[in-house]
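For homework, think about our next protein:
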Amino acid sequence: MSRAILPFTEANSKRVASLFRQALRTAFDSSLKFDAYRAETIKIRAQFEANKHISDPTELESVIAATRAKLAEYAHPDPYFPPCRPGGTKYQRNIPVAREPLVPGDW
């Protein structure tokens, strides 16, 4: 006996919210100016709002799969990483100070 996934559960809300955040990050990676990014975020929000009413679990799964495929298609080849996060330009830039003497020998 298989149970259908109900559309308005907390798990589905989290999945859709995660997809929304991924879409916003993808838009941020591919835009160079804030006004272009803002226009893109408005379009993304409108697309998510248009599918807000879906109550059929199979239709919901197909829309989520299509959204994931679209995100994979539009993924930026060189995404933005905050500088201090792993993968960022400043991550572990300053190497720790050596504890042993820098010049060997007894001065």
